Amino acid sequence: MDLRSRLSESLLYANIGPRDHPYRQKVFVTATYSWLASGAFGLLALLHAFGERDVRLSLLEAVCSATMLVIALGLVITKNVVLARTCFLLTVLILLMAMLITGGYEYTGQLWLITFPVGAFFLTDIVGGVWWVLAELVTIGLLVTLAHYGFVTLAYEDQAIIQIVLTLVVISIALFAYQRSREQLQTQAAESGRNLRAEQLKAEVIIENIGEAVLATDQRGAIVFVNRTGAAMLGWRADDLLGQKFITAVPMLDDQGKRVPSDQRPLRTLLEESRSMRTTATYVRKDGSTFRAFALASPIIVDGKQLGSIGLIRDITAEDKVDRAKTEFIALASHQLRTPLSAIGWLSELLLNGDAGKVSKEQHRYIQQINDSKLRMARLLDDMLMVSALEAGSFAITPEPVDIPEIAHQVVAREAALQNEPGKLRLAEEYGPHLTHAHVDLVVIRTVLQVLISNACKYTPANGIVSVTVKCSDERPNATCASSISIEVNDTGYGIPGAEQTQIFHKMFRASNIITKDTDGTGLGLFIVKAILDYIGGSISFTSALDQGSTFRVLLPLGTAPPLKAVDHA
Asked: Which of 67, 183, 196, 215 is in the most buried spot, having the most CB atoms within 10 Å?
């Protein structure tokens, strides 16, 4: 039965009335009462026959015992619980009226009379119990009336009968209250159970038909659940995947097309370290075909114990192709724009230098604006080309000995020279030892320093302070590096609004408080820095307070470099 059928069945089941208890329970309770009553009446018949020598009462009890036996056997054969229940209570009621006449064994009949409501309420329901208690009271009243006119003789005085009736009423009221609360609790429990089951089935329907693969594994990495989409995406039948280890059944390829070893799979790290993971990678289907996918997984932890993992896989093959086509187009367009920009720059410099003849002050100002615009466009093209290379996974990393203090000082000096008012900012530099021959990529270190220092200077008002600190660090931004270089740029500038700090590394994002202060920014600088650091296994963090300044800290990995990888900017 599929999930839709099960859900329909659940919704139909929700229409069942609250008084309809499970049928097997009704049969069991009625049969149990019948067997016990048959045995009890049989023992009483023997007791009255040989103890009090009351043949008449003994015969009546023997008949009742046989009747209860027939009811029990009939219930087992016919399963007609309503008929059996009615016959049972009617037989008991007849016997109780006989006890009212005879008094029972040593006048214990009054005890049985007041216990009748217990069986009536428990064998039926709250309404049935009330009707049977009323039947008992009416029958007692009928016998009292017959005794009053001399048709029968009762074993009890009027005062005793009044006590029996009062006790009967009190017990019935208590049972009514108890049974009502019990049935209300049963109704609520049944309703909660139905709602829970319906919600569970709805969730199963949603998971089965969601557009992404959903998988769950145990603590060993064996698949314990996979939805329909997941089985189709991986090229397996769902039943064939269950029990197999995900790492074995679904191989992963790196960007060079090589199979990723089991001990380097993200799922292995998740299960060993109990932390969430996300990755973009190439997976292999059962038939050997491959597809690009974004995977997100988290550990399942209950009461502090890890039970396994649950993950979501989304096929991004089509998206990846579109993204690569877009990246290639941007790269091609950027390259093609370089030629006319170079011509514009050469011609504008020719005019500014007077090589083509003398120009007026107003003409010189216009030509200077043309040249400045060309420089901004050239920087934008450089940024676009770098973003394209990072997203395509073709950004080349070439570590070499670099004098980092010299590079940083060049960037600081250039920014100081660009200030409209010399000396408006105080620029401080501090460099640690062992940095003159650090083994890093020159483009990476220059880009990181240029973006961080340029931003700090642009977004710090007059008389502010910008400090640059570079030193070696024992911190490891990734598991494969031996140490790192720490770059910290602090300013006393405008700061970043708290509500916007989570977006600071997004492409084309610019904080609302600086857009009007600097209209030339592109919003690509910090995005590129973050993308580069993700690419090489570094890290960047920051703290900022509005109108108080910001501090950006970068860790550049040293030692064994991680393999090249495409950067996910989804």
From this structure: 215
